[in-house]
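Subject: ATP-binding cassette domain-containing protein structure
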Amino acid sequence: MRSKRHGESPTAAQYFRSVAWYLLRLAWSADRRAVIACVAVSLAQGVGTAVAVTVVRRVATVVLTSVGGNGARSGGVAALLIPAAVLAVAGLASQVLSGIETYRQGVLADKTTVAATEQVLAAAMRAELVRFEDPAFYDRVVRARTASAYPGSMVQSILALLHAAIYAVALTASVALMAWMTAPLLLLAVVPVWLESRRANRSWYELALAQSEQLRGTMHFESMLTGRAEAAEIRAFAAGPTLIRRWRRDRTAMLAEQIRWHRIYTLRMTAARVASVAVTMTAIAALAVLAGAGVLSFATATAIVVATQLLMAQLTSLATTVSTIGKRRLFITDLMRFTEDMPPETPTPPPHPFTTLTAQGVGFTYPGSETPALTGITLELRAGEVIGLVGHNGSGKTTLTKILAGLYSPTVGQLSRDGNPLSANDLPALRASTTLVLQTPARYPLTAVDNIAFGAPTPDHVAVTTAATRAGIHPHLAELPHGYNTILSKERTGGTDLSGGQWQKIAIARAFYRDTPLLILDEPTTGLDPLAEADLYHRLHTLHPGHTIILVTHRLANIQGADRIYVLDHGRITESGTHQELLSQQGTYHHLYTLQASAYHPHLSPHHLRNSTTTPL
C-alpha cells in the first residue's frame, strides 16, 4: 500500500494499522505473556484514574461543605478519611503497576528487536545472490537493517499509545458524565498537534529516503576507517585524513538538511501546541461560566478541571506517541516489505550426484547493465572430469562458475542435469551439490572447527581433522592455543589470525569437508607458495573418481592435465579442447601459454615457443 504524496488518504490509516498489527504480531511471537501483562496493567490504571476523578469530586464536595459550614460539621473530617484512603491506595497501586509495566515493556522491547533482526537476516539469506549486484536492492537491505533496530521501541510506543488511549477514554467518559458539553472542546484541543505530527512524519521519511544512498556511503567510510582489514593499507598510504574529509563532507551535507527539518518542525509544532493550549483554556473558561451560573457545582467543576489537566497530558502523550510511531512507521514499512518480498524459505536439499551437467546457449546480464556478461555459452561437464577455465580478467569466468554452481540463474539459455532441464526451483539442489572456493575466501571470526565445517549444524570433528590434513593446514591448527577450538580472529578475545596462504588452505579444507560432487576452484592457489601449490594439486587428484573439478586459473601449467579446457573472451567461449589441442590451434591459449613459458625459459624466445606444442612450464 502507498500513501498519496500530497495529503493523507485512507490508505495512510491502513498503513498505520498494518504497521501496528505487524509489530503486535512480532511482539506476541517474542513474548505473549509480556504483551498480556502490559495491556492488563494499562486497563487497570485507566479504570483506576476514572475512579480517582470521582473520588476527587467527593473530596471537593466534603471540603466545600465543611468550609460552607465554617468547619462546624462534625462529620467533615471523618468524611474525608475514606476518599483520602482510596486515593492513597490508588496512588500506591499505580506506582507498583507502573513498575511492573516498565519491566515487562523493557523485556518485550529487547525480545522484539531480536526477533525483527532475525527476520531481516533470514530474509537477506533467502534473496538470490544476483540481487546483491543491484545498488537499489542493497539500499533496501541497508534500510531494513536500520529499521530492525526500531521494532522494540516501536512496540513500547504502541503500548504507550494504548495506555494513553485507555486513560483518555476513561477521563473523557468521566468528564462527559459530569459535563458533557465540555468533552468536545477537550478532544478538539489535540487536533492541531495531531495534524502537525502527521505532516512531520511524511516529510521526515522523504528526507530519510532521499539520504539513503548518501548514508550508505558514509557508513562505508566509517567501516573502512575503523576496520581491521583496511587498517594497514590506509596507514601505508596516509589516506586517513582524506577519507575523513570525504566522510565529513557527506555527513555535513546530510546534517544541514536534518537541522533544517528540525527547525521547521519545531516552529510548526510550537504553533500547534499553542493552539491546543488556547482550546484547553477555552474549555476551562466555559467551566468557570457554568459554575458561576449554577449549572455545575464547584465540586464538579473542580473535579473536571483536575480531569482536564490529566486528560490533556494524556492527549498530548497520545499525539506525541502517534508522531513517534508515524515517524518510524515508514521505516518499519521498509522492514515489512523487505521480509515479505523475499522468496519463502525452502529446506536445503541433499547433494545430488550427476552424470552430466550441461549449459546450452546460456547468457547472463547483471541487473542494471545493458551489456551481457555471458553470451551463447555451451559446454558439458561429466562426472569425474577436471575442467579448466581460462581467460583475461573480466572475460566472464567467475560469472560462469556462479551459474554452474547454481548461485545465478541464467538470463537466457538452459542448464540441464543428466538431460533434465533445471528450473529456478532446482537451483538449491545444484548449490547443495557444489562447493565453490574463491580467490579471496571469507574470513569468518569463528573457531577453526566452525570455519572448516562452515554451515554444518553439528560439526563432525573427525571429518574436520581429516579435511584439514588433506588441505595441509592440520599441523598449524593443532599448534594453536586452543587447537581447533581457537577463534580465527584477533578482533575476538583470545583469538588469533592466519596468513593469507593459511586462510586459503582453510577454504580448501572446507571444500574437502563438504565433499560435494562438483568442486569449483577460482584461483585457489593465489596465496600459496610454489611448494604448497604443487602439494594442493597433488591432493586434488586424490579426490573420489566421481568428483567433477572446475579449475579457474591464470597459471596454465596447473591445468595441462585437464580433460577439457575452455577459453573465454568477452563473455564467450572462443576455444575449447585439451592442452595439446589448444596449443595446436595457435590461438589465445597458445599465446598465453607461450608468454608464461618464456618467463620460465628466458633462453627461448616467444617466437620459438610458438612453434612448439610441447614446451613444459
